[in-house]
Amino acid sequence: MTVNKIDNGALQYHAPDGVFLGIPTGISTRRFSSADTVAIRNSEGIIISGAGEISSWPIERFIEFEGDMIALGPWLEESKPFEKEDFTPEMIARLLPAIRLLKSAGFPMNGLYSKAVRWLSDGGILIYPPKLVAWMVELNQDSRMWIHPDRKGDSAWSFSLGVLAWQVLTGSDPFAGETDEARRERIRLGILPPLESLAPGVTQNAEILIRKALTGPEETAPTLEDWGSFIKLWLHEGIVSALPETELQERKARARDKADGIEKKLRNRRWFRKSGWKLLVSVAVIAGVLAFISAPIRKALEAPVTAGMPPMEVAETYYRAIDDMDSEIMDDCLAKKIGKDDVRLITTVYVTSKMRQGYEGIGDPPLASDWIKDGKPELSEGIWPWGISDLTLKQLNDGRIEARYRFWTPPEGGTEGGAASWSVSRIDILHFTQGRKSWEISSIQRTTEE
To answer: Which of 84, 171, 237, 313 is 20 to 30 Å apart from 364, CA to CA?
Structure first.
């Protein structure tokens, strides 16, 4: 048995029963021992010839070579890996029909992995078996160049094409980070410098399409048809115009400033995740103390906003104030010493959201009622819906009011979690008394269900 290195992406393996193409997995024998090799072998790769014909490429066996597990499949003459010189518009044009065929054949992959693709001499392409690719992506965490960590389906393919287009135009990875975790963080945050500052003269339409593929909502990602039209325009008319030298240097300077700003934002975010909660707790406690001290003084001097309102309107105002994180209006709705846990929570969440705005550039959380109305779109990491949804108020015979609703807050222990934020169903029975200036909620009997 003889092993010959062909290139940095494959081996030629001579065995008694034939010649095989060997694919280095980058996974050591020890780490590979936990892999389901039967499932990987049953997950065939696919060959799309230059003529558009599809055939399978199965894994025959695995061998160890120089500490690396090698997947062996049928030998292919004159195949080659992706190299730096392959990053051209023509390369993307070659990939597009292959991706369309992969989709129509139901090939179970969500985007392209740079080390799982080889060019064939007839202009075709080899895509490694998806189960093998999944293991390579999982364990080779330095090379997820074209795969989004969360997307699936069409938007995942569009992301891969967006990364390739960005690299062709700029020569760099749009989400480059020191570690794979840092890269995933950049992808999820959607932090990108203006493409026009890195590829001066690129058309606005090109920047919009590429940015939508990389950072836009999944439902608005460019389709493969959009990419086909875009690549045709790129090849025949071009998407970059020449600029005078002075303007070119100005744009490069703006790009450097933008990159510095992005790095500062990411450093602040990491610091906030590590130690910001200690500061938030301190600030929230101070805010709570100030609210506790100032509320009775303000209440004694000013007429409450609820003056003249009937109990039902006071109830509506109270729950609307929770949505608005307005602890002062909540206090106007409450009798003395009532609802302090609600006010304390709102104060803490309000201070937290403002601190995150300062440290991470993250805006206020979306209202749960609006988020649900919009169809519960996927939220970026660290963004969570807040407030009250599905509120109904019912007047009971004895003057009490029943409030039924779902309450959304950040997940316990932090602000990560996106749409998985913690929420509960609540039933509040509100009792009212006539105060000196307005009706007030004198007690809240609350039932909570997960």
So the answer is: 313
Can you tell me the distance from the alpha carbon of 389 to that of 368, in angstroms, rounded to the nearest whole number?
Answer: 6
- What is the spatial distance between Cα 373 and Cα 386, in angstroms, rounded to a whole number? 14
138 in any annotated domain = no
- Residue 271 within a domain: yes
- Boundaries of domain holding 291: 267-449
Q: What amino acid occupies position 68? A: D
**Residue 83, phi then psi, degrees to nearest 5:** -120, 170
Flag whether the pTM goes above 0.70. Answer: no
Q: Count other C-beta atoms under 10 Å from residue 297's C-beta.
A: 9
Contact 47, 119 (CB under 8 A): no
The two three-digit tokens of residue 204, written as one number: 């606005």
pLDDT in tens, 357-371: 555 556 677 888 888
Report the pLDDT value the prediction gives residue 272, as an integer from 0 to 100.
Answer: 47
The answer to whether residue 173 scores a pLDDT higher than 90 is no
Residue 402, pLDDT score: 95
Residue 430 forms part of a structural domain: yes
Q: How many residues does the chain have?
A: 450
What's 365's domain CATH number? 3.10.450.50
**Long-range Cβ contacts of 190-193 (<8 Å, 24+ apart):** 190/214, 190/215, 190/380, 191/262, 191/265, 191/266, 193/255, 193/258, 193/259, 193/262
Task: For residues 422 and 143, give the distance between their C-alpha atoms in angstroms, rounded to a whole number.
Answer: 34
Rounded-to-integer distance, Cα 369 and Cα 376, Å: 10
* Domains identified in the chain, total number: 1
Query: Is 78 inside a domain boundary?
Result: no
Distance CA 12, CA 22 (A): 6
